[in-house]
Write the structure tokens for this entry.
Amino acid sequence: MNAPEPQPLTPSAAPALMQAAALLSLALPLLLPFSTVPDAVLVHQLAAVAAWGLWLLLSAAGPSPIGSSPGLTLTFLTGLLAAIAWQAQQAAQAGVLVAAALVLWATARQAAAAPGAARELARPMARAWTAAGLGCVLVAGVQMLSPEGGLGGLVSPGTTPGRAVGNMRQPNHLATALICAMVWTVWWMAEVWRAAHGPRAPRQRAQVLLLFAISLAALLAALAGSGSRTGAISLALLLAWALIDRRLPGPMRLLLGLGPLLYGGLALALSAWARARQSGFVAADRFQFDGDISSSRFAIWRNALELLAAHPWTGVGWGRFNLAWTFSPFPDRPTAFFDHSHNLPLQLAVEIGLPATLLLLLAWLALMWQRRAAWRGSPVVPGPVDRAGLDPDQPGRAVADPDQPGRAVADLDPPGRAVPDPDHPGRAVLVMLAVLIVHSQLEYPLWYAYFLLPAAWATGLWLGAGAAAAARPVVGGTAPPQAPWLQGLQRLAGVLLMLGAVMAAMDHRRVERVFAPADGRQPLDERIARGQLSPLFGHHADYAAATLAPEQVPLAVFGRPLDHLIDVRLMVAYARALHARGHGPEALAVVRRLKEFRRVESMRALPDCRGPRSAGASPDPQRLGAWACAADIAEDLDWMRLRALAR
């Protein structure tokens, strides 16, 4: 009697529903044209959380003995606890990290369920990435033609004429989304290419190649329109993939390798088109490399390293980079207000310390290396093949040797020899993660749910696929007794994510009314008071209260805004509030930091110290009194001392 085969993945929803869930998870957050105040992309992030919750609900499947690995469950629990512990003071970010931990765990569990499970999970997501990317192409095209937006409100206005920014309103985010779409378009179209069979195979492959060429050109054109240097750098990863991966069909591999050249040609064409229209094209200026080519990144990295040198062991505290950097003396600081160091390893080090950062990164690398079998995928054993190299168990499917493209296994080896699965998504997963890692060295895309959750999915797919590929066949294995419980847990997690996103949106409405009231009947102070009751976004209402009447509110009102993001208005208000309550040295220390930013609005807030001085406070809440003239001779104080007063 033959041993039972590993239990296959059995999704709890029809393929059409899974495809719809994948589209909602990837395309909806990237293409939503709506924005909110004060957080312009909050609606995109909540849409991502809700859509991935739906994906968790629909994709729940009973795991095989492989999929119930204690290591994967432990990874999930560790990530969950770390998310809660690290983000306890910022509930909204904690919720997103919990969502990422759930997506990673669920994907890893299902990808490990059977040798072909990762491929089944990847197919709908790959097509969804293509749809999302082509949707971004449409948005980018409209923004290039009409910076004020269009298509009946489906395209957001561009922030810079002559530059595509996407509906996320950030060109680097648009660029990363486009490159991820390229990665997965390559993978699923290569799978379709290999599935072509019979006398019509040449025609079918020609059609696939034409569709791939058109899609790649459109995505590259939108990338050029974004003017993103980060995106241009990431094209090197696609070139490396084309050079390394011999599994890719030859023509598609050639087009992928020519991607950087195609990108350059399309950028030149767009530049010529813009000149003909007598309009601007930002990309032409972005690559001149005049002035500060780092866009202040070099300066913020220097400042972050100085902070790290001062707090090497435990860091400044999770989520407190902006606070520590703003209130620490940096005469050479960039003039913009940064809430992130624009480098993921550096950000982790400066906030949680070097030991914890090294431990975290080394653990992640070790886990990825341990599951490196995902690079080749689970071996497949071809069945008996005919002379054309076709597998009768999969009608019309050619069984090709991935290491020798164009040749059938039947021509090379006897039946029964296991070969690497040519359609395994492991390599596409690794390229996508590499794209996000490159972006994370220059910005912070993983602080956005519409990139963090796909990254968690990709990581889970790699870990689960690696476990399935490295596992030995289980003889007489049956589903573990906890399988129904794990399946129910995943469904419950999906429901909770959807409910959480809806509740967060309702909670945010209280804060929105502070800045954009539905009508003018409710007084501002009442709207602020209601907004301050928000458990997730109350810091925005505190900001409004603190900056409108700094001398009249308790210092504790400044606490949540200081931990979120400090700007000129908040610094001026905090300095006034400290001075009004007799904390003169601290108020002057805040003014000293304010002057370092050298911004127009910060200079306007300072008093004129050349003429007669008034001893009273300025009636304008955004101006400082004559007392601030003593800031030049005041003492620098520790940032923790300045924050401690807002209790």
Observations:
- Confidence is low (pLDDT under 50) at residues 1-10, 64-68, 383-413.
- Residues 537-644 form one domain.
- The chain has 25 helices and four strands.
- The CA atoms of residues 299 and 333 lie 6 Å apart.
